[in-house]
Amino acid sequence: MSIETTTQKSQEVNKLQAQTQSLKIEVDVSNRVGGGYSNNFIDKLPQNARDRFERHGVDLSKGYPEKPPSEQIPLYVDDAQKIRDKPVDYIPRGKNADPEKKALFSKVKQVKHLTKHIGTELIGVQLADLNEQELEELGLLIAERVVVFFRDQDLSPQRQLQIGEFFGQVEHHPQQNHVPGLPGTTVIWNELAKQKITFKTAKSGTGRWHSDLPHERQPPGVTILHNDTIPSVGGDTFWSSGYAAYDKLSPEFQKFLEGKVVVQRSMHTYLDRDDPLNGGKQITRETPLVRTHPVTGWKSLYVNRGWSVSIKGLEPDESKLILNYLFDVYEKNLDIQVRFNWKPNDPKLGSTALWDNRVSQHAAVWDYIDDNEPRHGTRVSALAEVPYFDPNSKSQREALGLAN
Ligand SMILES: [Fe+2]
């Protein structure tokens, strides 16, 4: 895009901002401009993150982080929806893996299940060193255990991206910050949180249970978060299993829910081209409420408090009541959750989590804000299949022969 067109776009945004301000309508259009490198945060980059990037040859000389160019950041919701509508190839990694995962497990010192139903830590191995066969087996392990952890990791953002590409086409967010020169490596850093999180508001944003990007045509499956900077105390993350949430329901209620469709929405808002002054509008997408995992073949509950809006075909009150109950099943059953503290044994290294976003929800714990300590990492999300429900698929407990 030429400078002239960028200027025109900035003028358009300024005009809209002025109009919305005069009408006292809250529309945040500020993040539609200002793509490229940022110089506002580079001095605040935590030492561990800086060391990691320098060790792996990331060029920070132009600034940090980088945003997609202004011309790629959509202003209107129809443009944003178009970006998200493109089909991408997907190979269900793990489907052809050795069910015993012998290659992967022979490479690690210890396989430690953190809870009965969700979460496994692989100890004594570098994720970066795994070959394709081992990654294929890791794909199966993630699909079965929902989230897999690696502590004491030196993971370059380049290798993180490469591993993401193994699991699916990496999502390039049209407006999120990423590591310079590496679109797809989304920066997760409390310093960038727009609104200051306080003790009283710590349950908002990522502090709320959610799964990532359900408004995508093909929402992420395997998602890789590497935290290179971890607060001295706290900053944990929770995950909850969608397989187990489904298995918590009675067979009659399961039957009622199967085949139902949920409307999911995006986090970011955009303007309605035909009604730009009427507030922000999210991208929406219809997905099955119960979906089948292509690798395990198990059913999972695909709703979350963050982004699931309504159940199609039900009266608004019915939809709200049922969704709230389903959110509670995910959030209140402690036996289907795992809590991970990211702290490595070696303070110069980081920790990595790979979770299956299709069959889980997660929530960040904002308990370190009083200390003004940074938490910094990079996230890579691999897009998976178009969500589907196979009426012949089984639940996890059914497939494993476990009692109800
Ligand atoms: Fe998230």
From TrEMBL:
GO terms for molecular function: 2-oxoglutarate-dependent dioxygenase activity; metal ion binding. Keywords: Dioxygenase, Iron, Metal-binding, Oxidoreductase. Its cofactor is Fe(2+). The keyword Phosphoprotein does not apply. GO terms for cellular component: cytoplasm. Residues 110-380 form the TauD/TfdA-like domain. Pfam families: TauD (PF02668). InterPro entries: AtsK-like, TauD-like_sf, TauD/TfdA-like. It comes from the Eukaryota. Belongs to the TfdA dioxygenase family. PANTHER family: ALPHA-KETOGLUTARATE-DEPENDENT SULFONATE DIOXYGENASE (PTHR30468), ALPHA-KETOGLUTARATE-DEPENDENT TAURINE DIOXYGENASE (AFU_ORTHOLOGUE AFUA_3G01010) (PTHR30468:SF9). This is Dioxygenase. The lineage of its organism: Eukaryota, Fungi, Dikarya, Ascomycota, Saccharomycotina.
